[in-house]
Amino acid sequence: MEAPEIPEKFNQYAEEIKATIKDTVSFKLKPAKDLKIWQSKVGGIPYLPIEEKYPYNNSGVPLQFLIQINFSETPPLPGFPENGILEFYIDSSDGLMGLDFDNPTQQNGFRVLYFNNVDTDESKLHADLESIRSQVQFTSPVSKESEYSIEFCLAKQFITRYDYRFLNLSFGRHCDLIDEYDNIFLPSGHRLESVRSKRNSLIV
Question: Domain 8-203 has what CATH class?
Fold first, then answer.
């Protein structure tokens, strides 16, 4: 999938915009049932080796499993692993889903887990988590009964106005241009994106 054309109105900034283009892997969700524990998914039962404890917040409330990405199922993306499973859990009992403005990287109201080696021997994985899931407040964004498979697609994307680097662009502070730019280069959807740094980004 190619990036959208740059409109004539932005011709004077075209080279600057083109320099921000990134390779991305976009997500398409489809309702599913009975996915394998190690498959990429939103909702359902997470991949969790028996020796690993299910994540809780500091108050002893289990977090809600949100999404897992099995990198063996994704198209290759520079800087990302070719194998392993990345998981995200959130505190659905909290109105901010675990977001802490004072300590944004403190994993209390959310948890990020990564398993480099994926074991497909189900006898070594947590398969029955109903006693824990019964304590989770499935208020949002995924209900207890919901489970979605993920289709991954390669795509190109220019920088969006919500990127912290956007204001560094020469037109980034032009209010009359930002709204129009936003309508053309939509920041919607879910994706993995490569970045030109030592870190990579997951945009959910």
Answer: mainly beta
